[in-house]
Design brief:
The complex is a heterodimer of chains A (about 80) and B (about 230). Chain A has helices spanning about 1-25, 25-45, 50-75. With about 80 residues, chain A is an all-alpha fold. In chain B, α5 runs antiparallel to α6. Classes of the chains: A mainly alpha (about 80), B mainly alpha (about 230). Chains A and B meet through α3 of A and α6, α8 and β2 of B.
C-alpha cells in the first residue's frame, strides 16, 4: 500500500517536473528537469517489472539526452527570449 | 483563440485515446503469439533474458529497423552540422581538477560497464542499446573534461559501419543455412544461463552495442567540435 502511494507521488512529481520544464525560461533548468522526469520514469518502469526498459530510460533519457542538450545550450544561448 | 483550439483538440484526443485503450483488457493472461514467446521462448532460444530473445530473435527484423532509424538520425544531424556556417575545431577550456581526476578514473570503468551490459544482454537486463549508450556517455565525459581528448572520427565511423554490416551478415547467414532471415539455428544453442549460449543472440547484441556506441560517440564528437561563427 505504502509503495503504491510512493508511486502516485512519483507520477505527480513527473507531471510537475514536466510542466516546469516546458514553462521555465532558463533552458538549463528545463533540460535538468526533463532529465529528472526520465529518471523518475525509469524508477516507475522498475516498479512495473520492466528492468530492460528502465535501463534504456535511465541511460538514454536521463544520461545522454541531457548531456547532448547541455552541449547544445553551451553552443547557443541559455535563456529563452 | 489558438490556445483554446489547441486545448479543445487535446481534450478530444485524450477522450478518444482513453476510449480506445479502455477496450483493451489489462492485466489478464494473453493468448496468441505472446503466449508462445512466454511458454517456448527459453526452450527455443536458451536465453535466460526473455526480453532479449524477443527483441533480437523473434522481432530481430524490427531491431534492424531500429538501428537503421538511429543511423538515419545521426546522418541527419551530421548533415545539419555540415550545412551551418561554423568553424570546425575543439574549444579550449580548462575543467576543474575534480572533474578531470574523476573522469580519468571513471572512463575505463564506464567502458567496461557498457561492454558488460551488451555482452551479458542475453543473461541479464539490458543489451546493445543500453551498453552502447553507456559507452557513448563515457566518451562524452572525457570530451567535457579534457579539451585535448580527440577521438578518431574516421575510425569511429568505419567501425560503426562494420558493426552494422555484421548484424546484416548474421541475418543473411541465417537465411542461407538456417532457413529464414536471422534464424537462430546456425550455431549450437548451448546450455541455458551460460555466457556462451542462446546461439546468435549475443553476437547480434555485441554488434548492436558496438554500432550504437561508436555512432553516438561520433555524433557527440561532431557536436563538440562545431563552433558557431560570430
Amino acid at each position: 500500500m505504502i509503495l503504491e502511494y510512493f508511486m502516485l507521488f512519483l507520477l505527480f512529481l513527473m507531471l510537475a517536473l514536466a510542466i516546469f520544464a516546458v514553462e521555465t525560461k532558463d533552458l538549463l533548468a528545463s533540460v535538468v528537469a526533463a532529465g529528472f522526469v526520465s529518471l523518475v520514469a525509469s524508477i516507475v518502469y522498475l516498479y512495473l517489472q520492466a528492468p530492460d526498459v528502465a535501463m534504456t530510460e535511465a541511460a538514454i533519457g536521463a544520461g545522454l539526452t541531457t548531456l547532448i542538450f547541455i552541449i547544445a545550450i553551451r553552443k547557443t544561448e541559455r535563456y529563452e527570449k | 483563440m489558438r490556445k483554446w483550439l489547441a486545448l479543445a483538440f487535446l481534450i478530444l484526443l485524450g477522450f478518444f485515446l482513453a476510449k480506445i485503450t479502455s477496450a483493451f483488457p489489462f492485466g489478464v493472461e494473453s493468448w496468441g503469439v505472446s503466449k508462445h514467446y512466454v511458454d517456448k521462448g527459453i526452450e527455443e532460444n536458451r536465453g535466460s533474458n526473455l526480453v532479449t530473445s524477443i527483441v533480437v530473435n523473434y522481432r530481430g527484423f524490427d531491431t534492424l529497423g531500429e538501428v537503421t532509424v538511429l543511423f538515419l538520425a545521426a546522418t541527419a544531424l551530421a548533415f545539419l552540422l555540415a550545412t551551418c556556417r561554423c568553424r570546425r575545431r575543439y574549444e579550449r577550456w580548462e575543467a576543474s581538477l575534480i572533474v578531470k581526476a574523476a573522469s580519468e578514473t571513471l572512463y575505463p570503468l564506464l567502458i567496461l560497464f557498457g561492454a558488460y551490459i551488451f555482452i551479458h544482454g542475453h543473461l541479464t537486463p539490458g543489451g546493445g542499446f543500453q551498453g552502447g549508450t553507456v559507452i557513448a556517455s563515457a566518451v562524452m565525459l572525457m570530451l567535457l573534461a579534457h579539451f585535448t581528448f580527440h577521438p578518431n572520427h574516421k575510425a569511429l565511423s568505419t567501425l560503426e559501419g562494420l558493426a552494422g554490416m555484421s548484424f546484416v551478415l548474421i541475418g543473411f547467414a541465417g537465411l542461407i543455412w538456417g532457413g529464414s532471415f536471422l534464424a537462430n539455428n546456425i550455431i549450437p544453442l548451448g546450455q541455458w544461463n551460460r555466457l556462451f549460449s542462446a546461439g546468435v543472440i549475443p553476437l547480434i547484441y555485441v554488434a548492436v552495442g558496438f554500432k550504437v556506441g561508436f555512432e553516438l560517440s561520433g555524433l557527440i564528437t561532431d557536436m563538440m567540435k562545431t563552433i558557431k561563427e560570430e
